[in-house]
From TrEMBL:
Name of the encoding gene: LOC114654923
A GO biological process held by the record: mitochondrial NAD transmembrane transport
Compartments in which it is found: Mitochondrion inner membrane
Pfam families: Mito_carr
Record keywords, A-Z: Membrane, Mitochondrion, Mitochondrion inner membrane, Repeat, Transmembrane, Transmembrane helix, Transport
Solcar repeats by residue range: 4-80, 88-172, 185-268
Stated name of the protein: Solute carrier family 25 member 51a
GO CC annotation: mitochondrial inner membrane
Predominant location: mitochondrion
Entry-linked InterPro entries: MCP_dom_sf, MCP_transmembrane, Mito_NAD+_Carrier
Length: 269
């Protein structure tokens, strides 16, 4: 096991979350309520500056650990499978990426609590991260994993595409001749992939946000929740993708930072 990949993934996530959390919060409100960007921003302004970073602890804990696992487990699974199988490398690495993404889903409770803390209808119900965790405990262990299916549907395939396309995209960019140009290329590569994958899996995240905003009650299937949202948004794809343009730009910045920071740190470690 090479711990450097885990550490680099951890610090890449920390850097990203610290910078992009307010943008993510606007996006979350759009996913949950189907708001226009300006309305979501006004909602956050109404919440006040003290609530702007409310809910950052769960994603900070979850994303740092998730990306540490994403990069670290991908390398470990890849090395393990390459040593013990004769399958083509592309297939082997794709399986490794899916396995890493599936393992990340263990951290669903953090994403669950983040959703509750970012939803303004729960502001008076949950004081902070630890209070939310304690409150959910009274509903049973399964409540922590509400919304697990969309996370699994997102993590595995998106990991496979990210790691599978990262190299080819970078090869298409102008050759880097210095640390700074390597950094720029890594940022562009990560940003393009993040934007593409963020858009591709956006409806899955919309369903996940709706599932995880509920506390208690029946566990509805992915299909039922999707159809409910579809009807609420008048059966229009454009309404389903509300916030996708902001997600696109956030993903460029977010995954650009993650990929560039990860590769930068990896060179030094």
């Amino acid at each position: 096991m090479d711990s450097w990949h885990y550490l680099c993934g951890y610090f890449a996530a920390f850097t990203n979350i610290s910078i992009t959390f307010p943008i993510q919060k606007v996006l979350f409100r759009q996913q949950l309520y189907g708001l226009r960007t300006r309305d979501a921003v006004r909602q956050l302004q109404h919440d006040g500056l003290r609530n702007l970073y409310r809910g950052i602890l769960p994603p900070l804990m979850q994303k740092t650990t998730t990306l540490a696992l994403m990069f670290g487990l991908y390398e470990d699974f890849s090395n393990l499978l390459l040593q013990h199988t004769t399958a083509p490398e592309l297939l082997t690495r794709s399986v490794a990426a899916v396995l890493a993404g599936t393992t990340e889903a263990v951290l669903t409770p953090f994403e669950r609590v983040q959703t509750l803390l970012q939803d303004n209808k729960h502001h008076n119900r949950f004081n902070n991260t630890f209070h939310a965790f304690r409150t959910l405990r009274s509903y049973g262990f399964q409540e922590y994993y509400r919304g697990l299916l969309p996370i699994l549907l997102r993590n595995g395939p998106s990991n496979a595409l990210f790691f599978g396309l990262r190299g080819p995209i970078k090869q298409c960019l102008p050759e880097a001749t210095s640390y700074s140009t390597h950094l720029v290329n890594d940022f562009i590569c990560g940003g393009l992939l993040g934007a593409m994958l963020g858009f591709l899996f956006y409806p899955v995240n919309v369903v996940k946000a709706r599932m995880q905003s509920q506390v208690g009650g029946d566990f509805q299937s992915f299909r039922v929740v999707f159809l409910t949202i579809w009807k609420e948004r008048e059966g229009k794809v454009s309404h389903l993708f509300r916030g996708a343009h902001l997600n696109y730009h956030r993903s460029i910045l977010s995954w650009g930072i993650i990929n560039a920071t990860y590769e930068f740190l990896l060179k030094f470690f």
